[in-house]
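Minutes, structural biology subgroup

Action item carried over from last meeting: produce the structure token record for Universal stress protein (Halohasta litorea). EB confirmed the sequence was re-checked against the source entry. Recorded below for completeness.
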Amino acid sequence: MYDHILYPTDGSEAAEVVEKHVKSLADAYDARIHILYVVDSDHNKSSMTLQRDQHGNWTTGMFRRDSDGNRGGMSKDKIDVLELLEREGTELIQEIAGELSQQEGYKTATACKRGRPHKVITSYAADNDIDLIVMGTHGRSGLSRQLIGSVTEKVIRTADTPVLTARQ
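Output recorded by EB:
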């Protein structure tokens, strides 16, 4: 029934709760777990650039001062915020996949993609013959007063694939 289960994660503690449900379902159906991390390209900070300050810490140009004390001094080590998030996301899902496959014996696949999270999740599900999407009701952007996270809600409304939500 469920050969391929999609586990979109943002690395939050809430997502770790969902992982327990994903593992239980994968055990029951001998399913492959697809671990997906989405870098939100629509995020308001996507146009920012990070750079290293004199101490080697990452900062934005608007907070850094050049040698004359003027704001916005740039260094040669500047990187794009989305690139940094993509690298961190890739490391996260590789770590999760390593734990699941090598230590616990699950079949896994990983992907790190850029875009609007709900669109990437539903597209990935359609393109990879996903049988079930398992998500939490809150992620990093979820407010405690919300009943369900906005990304999860959009996935539920737009996905052709069944969606199971796990409350944290």
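Discussion: Residues 81-103 form the longest helix (23 residues).
Next step: EB to file the record with the rest of the batch.
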